[in-house]
Write a structure and sequence with these properties.
Elements lengths: L4 H18 L17 H15 L3 H9 L18 H37 L6 H16 L7 E11 L2 E3 L16 E10 L2 E10 L5 H17 L6 H12 L3 E4 L2 E4 L1 E2 L5 E4 L9 E2 L15 E9 L6 E2 L5 E4 L12 H13 L5 E2 H6 L6 H9 L3 E4 L2 E2 L6 E10 L4 E3 L7
Helix pairs in contact: 4-5, 6-7, 8-10
GO molecular function: initiator methionyl aminopeptidase activity; metal ion binding; metalloaminopeptidase activity
Function: Cotranslationally removes the N-terminal methionine from nascent proteins. The N-terminal methionine is often cleaved when the second residue in the primary sequence is small and uncharged (Met-Ala-, Cys, Gly, Pro, Ser, Thr, or Val).
Pfam families: Peptidase_M24
C-alpha cells in the first residue's frame, strides 16, 4: 500500500529521530503509521515525555537524606593578615573585649549581690561610716582576694546626701548620721583585674521623693536605650534631658521642676581608668563625637530640684593617681615619695579615699598627699554640691557596646 508524500515525510522524520536517540542506548524500530496517519514513534515519544516527568533522579534521594541541608566541606583560612591600622586596631579591640567581658560580668555579679545586701541593711539612724564600711567589706568578701589590684573596690563608696550629688564618702571621724528625710545616692565600683563596674542608685525612705527618683531612673533608662555604636554623644544627652525635664515634684506645697545637673556626665571606662576619655552628657551639648564598638560606657544621670549645676565644696575624701603621671616622677619630699609608692602598690590608677590609706596602716599622710596633688601626680575630687536645701538623685549602669548588641552588664532586678 502506498503512503501519500505527507505520510512518507512523517515516517522519515520518525526514523531520523530514532537514529538520533540510538546514541543514548535506545533500540531503533521502524515506525509504522496507523489509520489516522500517526506513527507508532510519535505515540512513543509522547508517552516517554510523560514518563520523564514522573521519574526520580538519583540526587533526589540525597536531598531526602540531608533534608535539604548539606554538610560543609573543609573550611580553611585565607592566610591573609590584617595590614591597615584600622584593621589591626579592630583585632586588638576584639581580643581585649572578649577577654574583658567575662571579668565585667564577674564584677557585676558582686555589685548586684552587694547592693541587694545594702538595700536591706541601710536604715535611718546609721552613721555614714558604718554604711560605707558595710558595703566595702561585702565587696571585699565576695571578691575573694586580698590583693586590691587584682579584685575588690573599683572606687570608694559614694554616699552623697541631699544637695550633694557626688564624691562624698566619710573620712575617719565623720559624725554624719542618715536621717529618714535624706535622699541618699549610693555609688560604688567593683573591679576584677582592673575592669570596673560603675553603677549607682538612689535610696530614700520618705515616699514624697518618689517622683524625683522615678524621673532620674527613667532618664537613665532612656540614655541606655539611646546609646549605641555610631550614636552621637549630644543625641544621648538630648534624649536624657527631654525625659528628665518632663517631670516635676511637689515638696511641702511647692512644685519644683526636675532639672538635669548639666555639668555631670556619664563616661567611657578603660582598664584601671574609671574615666576613659569620652564624656557622655545628660543635656544636649552639640558634641558630635560618636561611640564605637567594643567601648565600655557608664550611662549616669543626675536630677535636681535646685539649679541643676554643681560646684566643689566640703572636705575632700576622693583621690586618684594621675593616668599620665611619669613613671619616674621626681618628688622632693621623702614622705610624699613613700606615699606615692604605697599608692602604686595598693591602688595603681584606681580611685581611693583617705579611709583606704588608714586601713593599710598609713598615718600622718595629709601633707604628703597634698604635695602629690600639687605636683600633679595625684588628683583630688572634692564633693560636688548643688544649692543647699535642694535634693539630687542619681542612677547609673555600665554598658558593653558589643558589635551587634549592647549589654547592660550591671542590670539587676532592683534597677
Amino acid at each position: 500500500m502506498k503512503m501519500s508524500a505527507e505520510k512518507s515525510s512523517d515516517v522519515i522524520e520518525a526514523v531520523a529521530e530514532k537514529l538520533e536517540n540510538a546514541s543514548f542506548g535506545e533500540a531503533v524500530n521502524e515506525p509504522t503509521a496507523n489509520e489516522g496517519g500517526e506513527t507508532e514513534s510519535s505515540k512513543s515519544k509522547k508517552k516517554k515525555k510523560k514518563k520523564k516527568k514522573k521519574s526520580t533522579l538519583p540526587e533526589h534521594a540525597i536531598a531526602r537524606e540531608y533534608n535539604g541541608t548539606y554538610p560543609q566541606g573543609l573550611m580553611m583560612d585565607y592566610n591573609l593578615k590584617r595590614t591597615t591600622n584600622e584593621e589591626k586596631r579592630h583585632d586588638v579591640n576584639f581580643q581585649e573585649a572578649q577577654n574583658s567581658w567575662n571579668k565585667y560580668r564577674h564584677g557585676a555579679e558582686i555589685h548586684r549581690r552587694t547592693r541587694k545586701y545594702a538595700q536591706e541593711k541601710i536604715k535611718p539612724g546609721m552613721p555614714m561610716l558604718e554604711i560605707a564600711e558595710m558595703i566595702e567589706n561585702k565587696v571585699r568578701e565576695q571578691s575573694e582576694s586580698t590583693d586590691t589590684l587584682k579584685a575588690g573596690m573599683g572606687f570608694p563608696t559614694g554616699l552623697s546626701l541631699n544637695h550633694c550629688a557626688a564624691h562624698y564618702t566619710p573620712n575617719a571621724g565623720d559624725k554624719v548620721v542618715l536621717q529618714y528625710d535624706d535622699v541618699l545616692k549610693v555609688d560604688f565600683g567593683v573591679h576584677v583585674d582592673g575592669y570596673i563596674i560603675d553603677s549607682a542608685f538612689t535610696h530614700t525612705f520618705n515616699p514624697k521623693y518618689d517622683p524625683l527618683v522615678e524621673a532620674v531612673r527613667e532618664a537613665t533608662n532612656t540614655g541606655i536605650k539611646t546609646a549605641g555604636i555610631d550614636v552621637r554623644l549630644t543625641d544621648i544627652g538630648e534624649a536624657v534631658e527631654e525625659v528628665m525635664e518632663s517631670h516635676e515634684i511637689e515638696l511641702d506645697g511647692k512644685v519644683y521642676p526636675i532639672k538635669c545637673i548639666r555639668n555631670l556626665n556619664g563616661h567611657t571606662i578603660l582598664n584601671r581608668r574609671i574615666h576613659g576619655g569620652k564624656s557622655i552628657p545628660i543635656v544636649k551639648n552639640g558634641d558630635v563625637t560618636k561611640l564605637e564598638e567594643y567601648e565600655t560606657i557608664a550611662i549616669e544621670t543626675f536630677g535636681s530640684t535646685g539649679k541643676g549645676y554643681v560646684n566643689h565644696g566640703g572636705e575632700c575624701s576622693h583621690y586618684m593617681k594621675a593616668y599620665d603621671a611619669p613613671p619616674n616622677a621626681t618628688v622632693r619630699l621623702d614622705r610624699a615619695r613613700k606615699l606615692l609608692d604605697t599608692i602604686d602598690k595598693n591602688f595603681g590608677t584606681l580611685p581611693f579615699c583617705r579611709r583606704y590609706l588608714d586601713r593599710i596602716g598609713e598615718d600622718k599622710y595629709l601633707l604628703a598627699l597634698n604635695t602629690l596633688v600639687r605636683e600633679g601626680l595625684v588628683s583630688d575630687h572634692p564633693p560636688l554640691l548643688d544649692v543647699k536645701g535642694c535634693y539630687t538623685a542619681q542612677f547609673e549602669h555600665t554598658v558593653l557596646l558589643q558589635p551587634t548588641q549592647k549589654e547592660v552588664v550591671s542590670k539587676g532586678d532592683d534597677y
